[in-house]
Amino acid sequence: PVLDTEDAWVSVEGPVSIVELALEQKRIHYPLVEHQFVLCTVLYAIMRLSLKAVKPLSLFDSKGKNAFFKDLTSIQLLPSGDMDPNTLSIRQQFLLKVVSAAVQTLCSSQKDREVSEEEYFPFEKGKNWPTLAADLAQYLQISEDLIRRHYVCELYSYGMDHLGEE
To answer: Which domain covers residue 144, as residue numbers?
Structure first.
């Protein structure tokens, strides 16, 4: 972009302006940022829902693992559309665990006392873990319908029929 400046500002001495510094920065590689976002979301789900025996890096192939912790401005080889069936199976199992743990946590807290999801997860108002898992399924190349069907089955199995019908 062209920055027009007045003549009075041209002769000013001092540190470089923030705008000029920002324009000098290299552009980030957005798919690499999305890839990092997926890892952060996976790690947060593992931590928040206390999932056991989950190896987060097993959800990614060798290209995906190599892309982590690289400079965000670098162009990295990211996973292509063709994935190993074993990796897809591990991803699917992980997302199903997230949905199951979210429903179990919500239902157990509501059985103890009448608590809404917002009260149980006070810093996560509006965060719906099963919906987040379905959104994450797009990035991990898993069918969203499979995740949603599992969510409905979990709701019915915990006696939350009214939510399952919705």
So the answer is: 18-112+119-163
